[in-house]
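As described in the Methods, two query proteins were run sequentially through the folding procedure within a single session, without resetting any intermediate state between them. The first query and its resulting structure tokens are shown here.
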Amino acid sequence: MAVVALSHPKSTGATAGKTTKAPSTSSSVAATSSASPTAPASTSAASSSSSAASSSAASTDSTGAKQPLVVLNNTTTTGLAQEASKRFERGGWTVTKYDNYQNDIISTCAYYDPDVSGARAAAQALREQYPTIKRVEPQFSELSSWNSPVVVILTPDYQA
């Protein structure tokens, strides 16, 4: 219901007669009582507009959020970071460095620098584009030495 209310506050005059969830409580109760057969239709319309808004926001974040990456191989597979770097570059990302790395990382993760604007959105967009990246997390202090907004650490669960 809150999503419906949030999608209608901008238009007060023209939609007041047909909405089931108006900003004022008395209108909402009256409209809900008299329009209960159409309530599911308006709910699905609200869901559609909500989905469209989410998709729009997601695509804006993904298109404008590509930040440089560092790719680190935390596996015993030789050349995995280089292979993954090429894959990410084919997908439109810039990889500034790749290397081997040794640490206890539970799953492949894109670590973002919380101090860099857009880094979190970039890490999330990268994960959406490459679902083999299981997590998105803020960088821990050791990763700051790589000087990158996003550091991807590959673990044995990574699949090309």
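Immediately afterward, the second query was submitted; its sequence and tokens are:
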Amino acid sequence: MTKSLRIFLGVAGVVFCVALVTSIPARMLDRMGGDAVRLSAASGTLWRGSARQVLVGGLQLGQTSWRTSALPLLMGRLAVNVDTELPGGFARGDVTLALGGRISISDFEAAAPMESLGRTLGFPQASGDAILTLQKAVLADGWPNELVGNLRLGNVPLAVGGVPGDSSINILTEFDVPDANEDGRLPGRISDQGGPLEIDGTIILSPPGNYAIDAFINTRPQAPPELSQGLMLLGPEGPNGSRQFTMSGSL
């Protein structure tokens, strides 16, 4: 077999596989995914399609559409652009699955009320709005070794006794980790986005899903007196009037 013939057969094989995928109805995903993935009212193909509802590992998604890119397939990667409805919100972005299970997420944005997310995911109930933006995240063996993005929590009520019910805070958590530490730790920063509290601190994520927060909190001049009194529970006052807040746990 000549070299030219081998190249021709290789290209023909790739074209055949792409043509096969583009012709498979989207409803076949329901059968291929087993109990892990369930689709309702699917239309289109595996290559480009949509579904009225998608159930993924217990997470109920609304109207969902997807588009697959052809070029990454030639390099052994499956690249899909996904646009879906979360409970009370949305999520959209690019997801790439490489051989070996490596997952890359880019140009990703998601937003939803924390109350509906907590109810859906089984987290403790919380109020406020969550907005997640990822420029890039790369996961290997279920843990990120690259993480560049931020999480905004807005209109989070201040759960301090005596504080007026309309008092709330906005918190920004930022990560800029193009390469995680050898032990997998991901350092980030926490700050406030206005409101009665000033927050400045750090957060460290470590495998398999632990977090540690170390922040300094202070009140702004317009803060209710009850809030200043509530912060006394955190401990002694520092030189600039702030108080240290530490917390750790598992996600």
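Residues 24 and 190 are 46 Å apart (CA to CA). We note this only descriptively and draw no conclusion about the first query from it.
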